[in-house]
């Protein structure tokens, strides 16, 4: 088959980009007899590091990279999207795969397609993710078009599949699941590497820390994490752990609440115990995960919760939302908290700060669970959905 792919998301720094890079890498390797046509803009082309005999890169001029223009406050030009549409029409693939609805563009009529919708967070919490009525309108139009043009909707978990059925009214017969996994770089680190990584971000010798990885959007409930961490700081004083906020605070695809988080930190008096690291590369993040007391992900909901799985792959326990697949994926590997349950969140941080034996046991169980997940399994499922759509 000739499989067209919207590879513009290759340059995305969030979960969409990770899914695109890891899944496509496995798909290309597992299907050597198929030809993959990667449609990319200049930004994605510069970052595309996948070289294989069965991959053809089709560069399409764009006035602005889709990974930036499709942001919550962005606006993609119709002319840019039509250039992509026409490029697909010229190549005429047997089937087209969009790894994320985020960068979706109209496909030629009668083009068979599979579109990945990772979650329904924007549908459940539009006021927390899309800051304007205009942004919400364009998001709804884009998703509606994708649903109309695609034969099959791919998603990342059974949890997300249920949400897509409920909120987008997609019949379960049209939904397939391709799960995610930790990248191979994520594994337990040596103590020397952990200490060096901590030093590089300015932590003092002997410091302990919790880590958060992700966007700073309201639905991530980072302010709740800040308040829970503050209570641990006030309890433990000189021995109190730090909180590492890992992620790009300057730019994001969706609505941000960075100022609200900073104001909360100032309000609770933990400015000297919270470290904004900015973006951290995987190899360095692996060390920070390995040395952490826990990875904390207290979101309203997660379609998959990949940062928690990546931390678990480093032998680190997690504190994560119950509104996600994580309680099942990492069973025994952490403490799972209902969104808005501040008391339980506070208690979870206190417990894992003090109980080293429990941390070790949860870390061990989480590591076993994370190692059972593979991108090859997700790629096999995605290829199955693509072949089904092409019939």
Quickly name the level 1 CATH class of the largest domain.
Answer: Alpha Beta
What is the count of structural domains?
2
Low-confidence stretches: none
Instruction: Assign a percent range to the helix content.
Output: 40-55%
Number of strands: 13
Main beta sheet: strand number and arrangement?
Answer: 7 strands, parallel
According to CATH, the homologous superfamily of the largest domain is Glycogen Phosphorylase B
- The oligomeric state of the chains shown is single chain
Mean pLDDT across residues: 94
**H and E string:** EHEHEHHEEHHHEHEHEHEHEHEHEHEHHH
Terminal residue distance: 11 Å
Provide the β-strand percentage band.
5-15%
- Structural shape: globular
Question: Given the structure, what is the number of helices?
Answer: 17
CATH architecture of the largest domain: 3-Layer(aba) Sandwich
Query: How is the largest sheet built, in terms of strand order?
Result: 3-2-1-4-5-6-7
Structural class by secondary-structure content: alpha/beta
* C-alpha Rg (nearest Å): 21 Å
Question: Might you state the CATH topology name of the largest domain?
Answer: Rossmann fold
Question: How would you portray this structure in words?
Answer:
It contains 17 helices and 13 strands. The chain has 391 residues and is α/β, with parallel strands linked by helices. It folds into two domains: 2-181 and 374-390, 3-Layer(aba) Sandwich (Rossmann fold); 191-371, Glycogen Phosphorylase B (Rossmann fold), CATH 3.40.50.2000. A seven-stranded parallel beta sheet has the order 3-2-1-4-5-6-7, with helices on both faces. Helix 1 crosses helix 17 (375-390) and helix 9 crosses helix 12. The longest helix has 17 residues, at 133-149.
